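pinned: reference chain
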Amino acid sequence: MVVRTGSGGKSDNSGAVVWLKPVGEPPPVANIRSGLRFRIVQQNKRFEPHILAIPVGSIVDFPNLDPFFHNVFSMFDGKKFDLGLYEAGASHSVTFARPGVSYIFCNIHPEMSAAIVVTDSPYYAVSGAGGEFSIPNVAPGRYLVTVWHERAKLDAASGYPREVIVSATSATLPVIRLIDSAPLLMPHKNKYGRDYDIPSSQAPPYK
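pinned: its structure tokens
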């Protein structure tokens, strides 16, 4: 279970990405199926899901389900790409070939954001609102647990990344405690490195 503290009394503990890497064994990336396909939908000026965890080599589709244009891009960390301006009903895809975190934005709508966490392990999960998560098909053994959350840092006393033992009789991880340290949407520039235009009443209908 994941528990966030300092969140203003809110009980939403979703969005934590947890993954396991075997200790003392060949890198699990060799066991990852490449070409797996995922989706982040653009709808109601939002990216859904807001947090996506995927293994290395996966493809993510970005369909536009809004009745206006979007321009999906990532220029800050992880995979850098710019899908350009595309209309309602269109979709573009990106292959994520390296592990890391990619922050996703729209060049038209500054309120839109998402994050894609690319893991070099097939054993990963994203926590739900109650902090619960489940990582299936983990064989007994020693693993290094890593945790990421877009607006929280690990409690210094937690010691993550940390080693755990998964056995046939005990497959429950210790409680993971995170401390809120940032707003949900960090200030960011558009893909040209400039501030976003201020919306006006004369804005064109594609916005």
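why pinned: The CA atoms of residues 117 and 164 lie 22 Å apart. DSSP finds no helices and 17 strands in the chain.
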